[in-house]
Structure formats: structure tokens, C-alpha cells
Amino acid sequence: MGEQYDSDLHLHSQYSGGTSPRMVIREIARGAAKKGLDLVGTGDILHPKWRRHVRRELVEDEYGLLKEPKTGVLFVPTVEVEDERRVHHLIILPSLDHAEELHGELSRYSDDIDAEGRPHLRMTGAELADLLKDHDCLFGPAHAFVPWTSVFKEYDSLRECYGSAMDRVDFVELGLSADSDYADRISELHEYTFLTCSDAHSPYPHRLGREFVRFELEEPSYDVLKAAIRRKPGGRVVLNVGLIPELGKYNRTACARCKRQFELEEAERLNWRCPECGGTIKKGVRDRVLELADLEKPKHPNHRPPYLRIIPLAEIIAKALGLSTITAKKVRAVWNSLVRRFGSEIDVLIETPIEEIAEVDERVAELLKSFREGTVNIRPGGGGEYGKIITEEESEREEPRSRKPVQRTLDELIGRG
Ligand SMILES: [Zn+2]
Ligand SMILES: [Zn+2]
């Protein structure tokens, strides 16, 4: 049995559009360490300047992965690319040399590969998957259900997208608005390992690792990581951790401009045009999954690990203290004392006994407990607006749009304790 590695394999550097200028290796490593992540993707590794920065800042670890010397956080080269149908795919590579080689080959299909961290490629998903047959890498669709840039906004099945290169697909990244209960209602997806990743654009612990995968690896090497994702001996995925899907910003069908939410039939009747403001209505992940689902209920294959639903600690603290913003000084103070005392944000979120958290702050302990038990009330997100945690009273006023997700605790999920 190997050691556990909490891993976030999809994020972006400062060279992708709309990201924080603080997305540099030192800040990512510092944020990852505070969060409690052991392994993160570099993101954007086809970008030449970013690759040079990565080479400069990281050293090769004894098993061949990259390591940030100060924090000991491990990195693996990753990149997200956009194909000609605006579908996003995630690629995980063995080394910077492999990234260099892939950059050379994909340059022929891209005008912005040297300028944009998430390059656009003049090729289809099938052509990309086919080209990758000659490369050692892990490959799969990114945030598979989101309405703007995903495989299922464009196609009704993976086979439709990847065609005869279908066997090149190693995993499906679920995205923030979906979980394995959603995805396992589609039997085509049962054979794939699900990745839960943050797609972070800034290094703060409420972004980085807001979704992550817990791997068990015999050694922290690329080959063992690959074995874990392909479900071969040497490693395995033991846990997917992610946002409660209703908190994702594309969970419900909603107007992209004014955020008003619609039932699917209503949106169809309105021809996807918002009667309130004239904006475009975007199909929510939940409705898209319901369209694609061939199973009445999720049916998890034997290899599927448990899925733990959680949200960033700062958001729990802010809500527990009745503060409207997670950047409030008081939120940061409680966050710091919890993380200093118990090791990392992930430890506080899922491992530390509630009684010990109550010694720091009882209100936070109380709310965290209902999170772990899945009894918190949610106002679902949609149209680009994140969902929110709401009080019992607020939820009674809002029925039936909000609901209580129910989940078992981590100990129950993994049969521990
Ligand atoms: Zn993307
Ligand atoms: Zn609108």
C-alpha cells in the first residue's frame, strides 16, 4: 500500500486569459502547501515562457516529478487546450522535455501557442486524440458538462467527439458543477476514472484545490500516477473531493446576463432568450446530465471511489460568522488559527475532529459539521454565478429551488473508524 497524495491536476498560470498575475510557481506552491495539496499540475506547460519559468523554479525529484524546493510540493506538467469546436481537453505529461516535444508538434495547428497559456488548436478532439497516440501522456475532456467549452456542450457522447481515437481517453474531468452521482447516470462514462480538479485562476486556498483527487501511490512518479488513473497496479484513486455541484456556477439553467434561473422546458420555449433582460440562457450542467442520462439513478462501477462534497474553508468561516465576504480580516484570522493548529486546510475540512475545531470557534465547527454530514442548505448557482449556502429560513422561503444534499461522512464513505 502506498502513500496518499492529495492532487489538483488542472490550474492555469499567469499566461492564461483572466488569471491572477500571482499565478507563478512560488505562489502556487505556497498556496498548495497551505491547502494541504501534495501534488499539483503546472498548467499551461506548452507556453514557452511559462515552461522556462517552471524549469527555473522547480527541481527534479528522485522519482522524476518536479518539486518546489522550499515547500516540497510536487508538480507534474499539465496543459489545457481548446480545439476548433471550442471543446477543452486536459493533457498530463511525463516531463518538460515531453512538453517541449508536444509544443513543437502542436505549433503547426495553433496561432497562439506561444502567447496563450490555454492555446487554441485548429483540429478536432478526434484529431488531437489521434495525434496523442504517439505521445506518452494522459488525456481526457476537461470540465465535461459546462455549457460554454466542454465535450458535452458540443456532442452527445464521448465517442462522437473522439471517434476512432476513443481509446486514447484516460479520464473524464467532472468540473465544479458535477459529481460522480451526476456522471454515473451516463453508462458510457462508467469505464473512465473521474478527475476532480480546481481549474484555479488564482493561488488562494479558496480557489486552489477546491476540488482534488486523493491518490494512493506506491511512489510519487509519473508512471505510478498514470497507473492510478488507468487503474493498473501501483496506484489508485481513493477519493474524489469536490464542491457540492449546486454550488458550481453552471449548475442550473440560467440567464448568463441577469442570472435568472429557468426550468429546461421553459428555456426551450423561450428559445434560450431571457424575457427579463434579453440575455442568452445557458443550459445548466444538471439539465445537460438529465438529457444525456440513460440511467434513472447513478450506478457506480466497482472501481469508482467515494465522492466527498465540501467547499473552501474561508467560505464556511464567513458564513458561520455572518460575514458577507471571505476576504474579511476576521475570516482570515480564524482561517489562520485553524490551519496553523491543525496542519492544512484539507486537514481542517475533512480530518480534524469537530470537537477540536470547536475549541477555536464553535460557530465554524457547527457549520463544518453540517457540511461533513451534508445537511446544509444551498441556493444553486447558474449562468456563471456560484451557488450559495443559505440559512434554514432563507431556504424555506425559496423552495423548491434549494435542497439539502445528503452525504455520508468521510469515515463512513471509506469505511474507516
Ligand atoms: Zn477549460
Ligand atoms: Zn436575463
UniProtKB/TrEMBL annotation:
Descriptive protein name: TIGR00375 family protein
Annotated InterPro entries: CHP00375, Pol/histidinol_Pase-like
Coiled-coil region(s): none
UniProt source species: Methanopyrus kandleri
Ranges for region Disordered: 379-417
UniProt cross-references to NCBIfam families, sorted A to Z: TIGR00375 family protein
PANTHER family: PHOSPHOHYDROLASE, PHP FAMILY, PHOSPHOTRANSFERASE
